[in-house]
Amino acid sequence: MGDKGIARARRLVLVMLNMTLATAWFIVLVASAAGFGPTSGVRLGLAMLGLLVFSWLFLRVTRAILQHRYATREVVITGVLAYAVAVAGGANPTGWGFVPFAWLAVAAIGLSRRNAVLLGAATIAVSSPLAILLTLFQQDPVWSQDEGSVAGLIVGVLVYNLLIGTFFPWANRLWVWIWQLAEQAHDGREAQARLAVAEERLRFARDLHDLVGHQLSAIAVKSELAVRLADDPARAAAEMAEVRQLARKALRELREAVRGYRELDLVAELGSVRAVLEAAGVECRLHLPYRDVPAEVAPVFAWVVREAVTNVLRHSTASFCDITVRFTGEEAVLEVRNDGVTARPVAEDVGSGLTGLGERLAAVGGTLSARPNSSGEFTLRAVAPVLAGVAA
User: Fold this and answer.
1) Helix crossing, 113-135 with 150-228: angle to 10°?
2) Tens-digit pLDDT profile for residues 129-183
3) In the record, which residues are listed under signal peptide (predicted)?
4) What is the CATH topology of the domain spanning 266-385?
5) Are 341 and 372 a contacting pair, CB within 8 Å?
6) 3-state secondary structure (DSSP) of residue 149
7) Distance of alpha carbon 297 from alpha carbon 230, whole angstroms
8) Cβ contact 127:86 at 8 Å
9) CA-CA distance, 77 to 15, in Å (whole number)?
10) What are the boundaries of each domain within the chain?
11) Mutual angle of helices 99-107 and 150-228, in 10-degree steps
């Protein structure tokens, strides 16, 4: 899951948390329209005003949840307002009495499991007596059939409050937990990429040290010896001749090392990217010819594979990646297809590295294209000419 996928998941979780507030408004408005609420206009006005302030604070609490912090002050004030609104509205369980449970649905997020259970029990313990006492003095669309039975009313209110006091808080905690898992997976993928870069740098530094470290040390020693032999020109000249030979050897080995890093091996690169994709949870399927890709295009294709897979890991929400290589007597084709499509056109992605790949392919007479298609997939296609007579 890329950055856009995380942002989309965050918006979805925020919507789901705020749906509890929307449910509270729906229940309150339906109950008020049906005449099951405060009969006094002053009480109704105060209840509505309190619900508006409650809603504003509720939205602040949900935003804080997605910022990984617990807004203690807002939670406390919102809780007091929830009960004030419930009492002003009559506290009937299927009307204004739902507001404290809307508060509980977000107040329990961020607490430990034990504290969340205790908070839910306390909310039920306070809301149930209020609902029972106030419902005894007014009609309610659900509890009217129990008018002659106080015991039936008590049991009904307790069961109802237990259900909503259990469902909404734990459903919202589940949504936030899933979102946090997605964030952790995303952070883990980025850490894996940084670790791979660090390991490559260490390997490069180690190889350079092994290749030219000895020659450079010998050059330093012989140069110092030549200075000491300044009074003996013949011996000093011999030492400097050896310094020159060592310098040439070091330069040659350095060039070979750099050339080895710049010219990737296609087979090794395919195996490497497959392992990285599968470690990141992306199914990788390779479709390769039965013979080796021509040597003149294999290094370029290796760079294309590396960059394409890097983009799959960083910029998409792909679940699979298909890599296909084929060639005829005239051209070789590499296709990298995945089901993660970015919203921006590829040409606008400055950091994608695709411009550099296009230049590499152009240097061998090839072309590069990268675009999403109508089926919701993204395909990167590289085409390069090969020597006549070579076919798979």
Assistant:
1) 160
2) 877 777 666 544 445 544 446 666 677 777 777 778 788 888 888 888 888 887 7
3) none
4) Heat Shock Protein 90 (3.30.565)
5) yes
6) coil
7) 54
8) yes
9) 22
10) 3-187, 191-262, 266-385
11) 20
Matching fold, domains 191-262 and 266-385:
no
Report DSSP letters for 5-61, one per residue: HHHHHHHHHHHHHHHHHHHHHHHHHHHHHTT-S-SSHHHHHHHHHHHHHHHHHHHHH
Half-sphere exposure of 52 (CA within 13 A, CB side): 6
Query: What does the pLDDT look like over 185-204, one tens digit per residue?
Result: 767 666 666 676 677 677 66
Does the reported pTM lie above 0.90? no
Assess if CATH 1.20.5.1930 describes domain 191-262. Answer: yes
**What does the alpha-carbon distance between residue 279 and residue 112 come to, in Å, rounded to a whole number?**
32
Tell me the pLDDT band of 233, cut-offs 50, 70 and 90.
confident
**Strand ranges of the sheet holding 320-327, from the earlier edge strand across to the other edge:** 283-287, 320-327, 331-338, 378-385, 367-372
DSSP code per residue over 221-279: HHHHHHHHTTT-HHHHHHHHHHHHHHHHHHHHHHHHHHHHHHS--HHHHHHHHHHHHHH
- CA 110 to each of CA 100, 106, 172, 328: distance values in angstroms, whole numbers, following the listed order: 18, 9, 11, 60
Which residue, among 94, 75, 236, has the nearest Cα to 163 in the 3D structure?
94
Return the SS3 of 383: strand
Encoding tokens for residue 63?
């935003």
Please tell me whether residue 220 adopts helix, strand or coil conformation: helix
Average pLDDT over residues 96-109: 89
Q: What is the largest CA-CA distance in the chain?
A: 124
pLDDT above 70 (res 56): yes
More confidently predicted of 221 and 74: 74
Instruction: Please tell me whether residue 318 adopts helix, strand or coil conformation.
Output: coil
Encoded amino acid at 182, one letter: A
Q: For 57, list phi and psi in degrees, rounded to 5.
A: -70, -35
Q: Tokens in use for 235?
A: 């011996």
Residue found under tokens 């070091």: 250
